[in-house]
Amino acid sequence: MSEISFPGIGRDILRKDVFMRIAIELSRLGTCPRKAVGAILVRDGRCIAWGYNGAPAGLPHCEDNNHGWVLQPEYREQYEDHDAIEIENTMLSEYGCRNATHAEANALAFAARQGISTDGTTLFVTVAPCDVCSKLLIAAGIRRVYYEEEYRDPAGIELLKLAGIGTVKQEFHGDT
Ligand SMILES: [Zn+2]
Ligand SMILES: [Zn+2]
Q1: How far apart are CA 99 and CA 19, in angstroms?
Q2: How high is the pLDDT of residue 61?
Q3: How far is the CA of 92 from the centre of ligand 1 (A)?
Q4: Residue 38 CA to ligand 2 centre (angstroms)
Q5: Predicted local distance difference test score (pLDDT) of residue 174
Q6: 168 alpha carbon to ligand 2 midpoint, in Å?
Q7: What is the pTM (predicted TM-score) of this model?
């Protein structure tokens, strides 16, 4: 075999490993401390757009607004400080971060801004998409989704499957 690959791993698997590694590297730029996620969109073996999760440009970061769950001042004044914080934290653990834009959504938004077609592309993402992102991915014509980790809510993956989009929990070969 003349192709360069490391022992026991074919070219196709090597390529997927590299793309997932790029997504993992990108996740390091994520700004929500609850979960760092990276995503890249691939067409014909090239990355055409990428994203990571974080606060929308120019808006407060997750650590500054408790992931979007800081109570409105007029509501907060009805409570002692520690009660208000408890309410916020309960909402956060129940519903998760509502401040950050997810990595996949950021990748799609970048493509939209730049006029890059996402139709028929493949997504590599470090955590399986949520239901909201899955709807965006379906609408954007994504054909396949490789993910490294399950998301706490499987609804997104179920939606993708229903829409006929290939979903693969990728076994990452890491440093081999
Ligand atoms: Zn957050
Ligand atoms: Zn999402």
Answers
A1: 27
A2: 95
A3: 9
A4: 11
A5: 62
A6: 17
A7: 0.88
Considering every ligand atom shown, identify the ligand nearest to the alpha carbon of residue 136 and give its number.
2
Residue ranges, the chain, pLDDT below 70: 1-8, 173-176
Rg over alpha carbons for the chain, rounded to the nearest Å, is 19
Instruction: Give the number of whichever ligand sits closest to the CA of residue 102.
Output: 2
Say if residues 103 and 137 touch (Cβ distance below 8 Å).
no
User: Residues with catalytic annotation?
Assistant: 104
Question: What pLDDT sits at residue 1?
Answer: 47
Q: Residue 162 — φ and ψ, nearest 5°?
A: -60, -30
Amino acid at residue number 103: A
pLDDT of residue 3: 55
The whole-number pLDDT of residue 5 equals 55
Q: Give residue 10's identity as a one-letter amino acid code.
A: G
- For residue 95, the ligand closest to its alpha carbon is 1
- Contact call for residues 20 and 73 (beta carbons, < 8 A): no
Q: How far is the CA of 130 from the centre of ligand 1 (A)?
A: 14
Distance 95 CA to ligand 1 centre (A): 11
160 CB-near residues (< 8 Å, 6+ apart): 129, 134, 137, 138, 145, 167
At 73 the pLDDT is 82
